[in-house]
Amino acid sequence: MTVLPTTLGDLRQSPWADAPLRGRSVRDEIRTNLIGRLERGGETLFPGIVGYDDTILPQIVNALLARHDFILLGLRGQAKTRILRTLVNFLDERVPVVAGSEVNDDPFSPISKYAKDRIAELGDRTPIAWLERSQRYVEKLATPDVTIADIIGDVDPIKAARGGHLLSDELTMHFGLLPRANRGIFAINELPDLSGKVQVGLFNIMQEGDVQIKGYPVRLPLDVLLAFTANPEDYTARGKIITPLKDRIGSEVVTHYPRTVQLGMAITAQEAWVDRPERQVLVPDFIQELVERIAFEARLDRRVDKRSGVSQRLPISVLENAVSNAERRALLARENEVVPRVSDVYSAAPSITGKLELEYEGELVGGEIIARELIRRAAGATLQELLDDLDVERVVAWFDGGGVLRLTGEEPAPAGLKGFGVVDGLMDLIRAMNLPDQDRPGVVYAACELVLEGLAAMKRISRNEDASWSRIRPEKRRRE
Q1: DSSP H or E stretch at residue 58
Q2: d(CA 313, CA 299)
Q3: Closest CA to 147 of 240, 214, 236, 242
């Protein structure tokens, strides 16, 4: 185990006193570590980030190689904050600072009066502390009430009185978040929500390294990488990024939702909490796909506000809620296996309605009705992927012949399968799909529900609100 220097004298005799470590800026530090990881290859640069490998992540890497401050611009639920928090992985494991410094002074190049006075007084006996990489990331959620004092700092009269200093003395200053992030990364979420006054102070200290606190000029040549996030809706709805600040941000990276259902499923599977310790949970692939398609259908629906977007949190919450409904059913039936069904997805409608911002037309229809329509359309799209030219005519003909099937969705799987078994051709169709785990009753039940829901979405059979399926009435066919 490496013994770390504890005084400035020891530090002068260590590798940290030599180039390239000595005097290296945080941007150069990130650039050097990033280059090393790229050259080694085979490393995941942004762990936990799915779906951006060919679009967003290369742009972020370019910005870091260029030593740019950057902003991630995108709708809610596009992993912007998570990306920012992974930036600490490109910092050194630890760096030396003057012990007691509020702004993480470099012992070889101090910027605060405190550190300069300390080194002048103690010389090589100046105590050294070590800052871990996790301590070098500072994040702030911007809100309209954030002040210059919060970000930059303010004069502290109590410090002045106790130390006998003039108010204009730097030693009377209480440093804000940005100076405390010196030699690290400072991230601001929802940048447009900052008032124009605070944004002015921000870019001034970014570019010129100085700021005025209560009329007193303070020069702080900070060494900070700045990263921001913003939602395009915020530019017009709640605020804007002032032009001088935007001009000083080196790179603007526009994020996006998953481009394919498969990428969305991978993100949802990674983020959703579906493993329940008391019982075995089995989520069929087609249920995962159906849940993901709900978000894709919502993003295309004209009744849903496109400016607000449909967060990736929607399918995550829906899947968790559907598993919980299946878990509740398993508890009541004393079953050991939990398998969510299409009816469980319908029970998860509260996870949909709360995440949709509706246009006026959507408000007239109502969020709950729209949620049910989205689920049905998602079921239809999922079934079409599974059918692969399989014939559903026997199933449709059974309903056209007057067959009606009514199930509550709460039955144990074996009891429900007896009901599905009366539908001519349904079980043969399920077997022909060759689904994984189709020897399990819960999976077969879920697949039967999917087939009937999908056929209802295709307007081949009728789905009634009393959880029953029947033929489509002739007059309804004519209208369609």
Answers
A1: helix 56-65
A2: 13
A3: 214
Omega of the bond leading into 20 within 30 degrees of 0 (cis):
yes
From the number of C-beta atoms within 10 Å of its C-beta (0-12, 13-18, 19+), residue 401 rates as exposed
**318 with 352: CB under 8 angstroms?**
yes
- CA gap 280, 337 in Å, rounded: 5
Q: What is the DSSP letter of 209?
A: S
Residues whose CB is less than 8 angstroms from the CB of residue 455 and which lie 6 or more positions away in sequence, other chains included = 383, 392, 395, 396, 461, 469
**113: exposed, middle or buried (C-beta count within 10 Å: 0-12, 13-18, 19+)?**
middle
Contact 312, 334 (CB under 8 A): no
Residues with Cβ within 8 Å of residue 89, at least 6 apart in sequence: 45, 47, 133
**Alpha-carbon span 72 to 248, nearest angstrom:** 14
Max Cα distance, the chain (Å)? 97
The conformational region for residue 137 under phi > 0 = left, psi -120 to 50 = alpha, else beta, is beta
Question: What percentage of the chain reaches a pLDDT higher than 90?
Answer: 61
**Which uninterrupted H or E stretch holds 363?**
helix 360-365
Structural domains of the chain, with CATH:
8-254 (3.40.50.300), 261-479 (no CATH)
Q: What is the spatial distance between Cα 401 and Cα 472, in angstroms, rounded to a whole number? A: 11
pLDDT tens sequence across 15-57: 888 888 888 999 999 999 999 999 998 889 999 999 999 999 9
Q: Which of 252, 307, 199, 320 is nearest to 66 (CA)?
A: 252
| pLDDT per position as a tens digit, 151-184 | 887 766 556 556 555 555 666 677 889 889 999 9
Give phi and psi for 252, each to the nearest 5: -115, 115
- Residue whose entry in the numeric block shows the structure tokens 């502390």: 129
CA distance linking residue 315 with residue 239, whole number of Å: 29
What gap in Å lies between CA 183 and CA 105, rounded to an integer? 8
Q: At what angle do helices 285-300 and 261-271 cross, to 10 degrees?
A: 110
The residue among 211, 229, 215 whose CA lies nearest residue 78 is 229
pTM for the whole thing? 0.87
Range with top average pLDDT, 208-217, 293-302, 382-391: 293-302
- At residue 241, the 3 state secondary structure works out as coil
H-helix segments, 410-473:
413-420, 426-433, 441-457
Q: What's the whole-number mean pLDDT along residues 444-459?
A: 94
